[in-house]
Design goal:
The chain has helices spanning 6-16, 20-30, 36-48, 55-64, 71-80. By secondary structure, the protein is an all-alpha fold. The protein starts with 5 loop residues before the first helix and ends in a 20-residue tail after the last helix.
Length: 100
């Protein structure tokens, strides 16, 4: 239900005996996900590259596709989706240069 004027909202809230803050809390809780399309795009990019891309490279690919989004938002969404990039194992290096 969409309320067009603040006076309509005031009448509605007085009839329901509900606080204005409670109304806006429930509107925010039940509203659609703001990042639902971007989450799908992030998952597609992540799985297409077999989990090798982290939030930085995912952000770059999203920007190439025309989505303007901050890297911090991509990081937060990837954490929400439990997507973590695969970290390569470090190679062992025993070389210490010229000795004595």
């Amino acid at each position: 239900m969409e309320v067009r004027h603040k006076y309509d909202l005031a009448i509605l809230l007085s009839c329901m005996r509900m606080a204005r803050s409670s109304y806006y809390y429930y509107v925010k809780t039940f509203s659609a996900d703001k990042y639902s399309e971007i989450k799908v795009m992030i998952q597609n990019i992540y799985h297409r590259h077999k989990g090798r891309f982290g939030y930085r490279r995912v952000t770059l690919l999203l920007r190439q596709k025309g989505q303007i989004i901050n890297y911090k938002t991509v990081l937060r969404l990837m954490r929400c989706l439990n997507l973590k990039s695969v970290i390569r194992a470090k190679k062992y290096k025993s070389y210490k240069g010229e000795q004595g």
